[in-house]
């Protein structure tokens, strides 16, 4: 699985993501909150699929392992589409063609591995399709959570900026000019 992740991750550097006009400063609180929440969603997403396939579909251990392999490959790469922008994943700017091709190419290769039983237990194309649909539905959930977290973080920053502006403003009704008027008079 690590080999399937390497190519898309290397090509993230060439993506068409929007760049800030001025230097940006890392907001570590935002980075940690968003990454932790997205990681938690990933665990819930994978656990949910595992539960469905084990309890409802009653897959044996071999096909279950292959299905979870597909889950991790698909979910991890779709997360790249979500996290590359502060907007919805399907809004411009679209991914650079090299990144898109690398992600889709590794998805096709992983599906061929699973369908043909290369290094993993063989599973049906139908199951691969269901795993894809499950992950596409979760992509919308992940994107909405990401947008909500960014919105909340932006609101927190704007409230903090307003508070700081108020804190540093003069206390007199003349906007700080009273002291200047008294010195001149």
Structure description:
The radius of gyration is 24 Å and the shape is elongated. The protein has six helices and no strands. It has helices at residues 2-11, 28-56, 61-83, 97-116, 125-167, 177-184. The protein has one domain (2-11, 30-184): Calcium-transporting ATPase, transmembrane domain, CATH 1.20.1110.10. By secondary structure, the chain is mainly α. Helix 1 packs parallel to helix 3 (61-83) and helix 3 runs parallel beside helix 5 (125-167). The longest helix has 43 residues, at 125-167.
List the helices and strands and how they pair.
Elements: H1 2-11, H2 28-56, H3 61-83, H4 97-116, H5 125-167, H6 177-184
Structure summarized in a few sentences:
With 185 residues, the chain is mostly helical.
Percent helix among the residues?
A: over 70%
Question: Low-confidence spans: pLDDT under 50, at least 5 residues?
Answer: none
Distance between the termini: 78 Å
Rg (C-alpha, Å): 24 Å
Q: What is the correct CATH architecture? A: Up-down Bundle
DSSP strand (E) fraction? Answer: under 5%
Q: In one word, what is the shape?
A: elongated
Defining key terms:
Calcium-transporting ATPase, transmembrane domain; 0% strand; 185 residues; mainly alpha; 6 helices; 72% helix
């Amino acid at each position: 699985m690590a080999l399937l992740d390497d190519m898309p991750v290397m090509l993230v550097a060439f993506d068409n993501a929007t760049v800030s006009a001025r230097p940006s400063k890392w907001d570590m609180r935002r980075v940690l909150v968003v990454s932790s929440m997205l990681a938690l969603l990933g665990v819930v997403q994978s656990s949910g699929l595992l539960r469905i396939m084990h309890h409802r579909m009653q897959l044996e251990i071999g096909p279950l392992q292959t299905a979870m392999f597909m889950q991790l490959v698909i979910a991890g790469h779709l997360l790249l589409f979500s996290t590359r922008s502060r907007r919805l994943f399907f809004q411009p700017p679209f991914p650079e063609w090299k990144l898109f091709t690398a992600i889709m190419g590794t998805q096709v290769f992983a599906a061929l591995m699973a369908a043909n039983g290369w290094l993993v237990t063989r599973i049906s194309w139908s199951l691969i399709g269901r795993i894809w649909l499950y992950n596409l539905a979760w992509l919308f959930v992940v994107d909405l959570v990401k947008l909500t977290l960014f919105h909340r973080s932006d609101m927190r920053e704007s409230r903090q900026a307003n508070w700081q502006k108020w804190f540093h403003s003069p206390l007199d009704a003349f906007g700080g000019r009273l002291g200047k008027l008294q010195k001149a008079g």
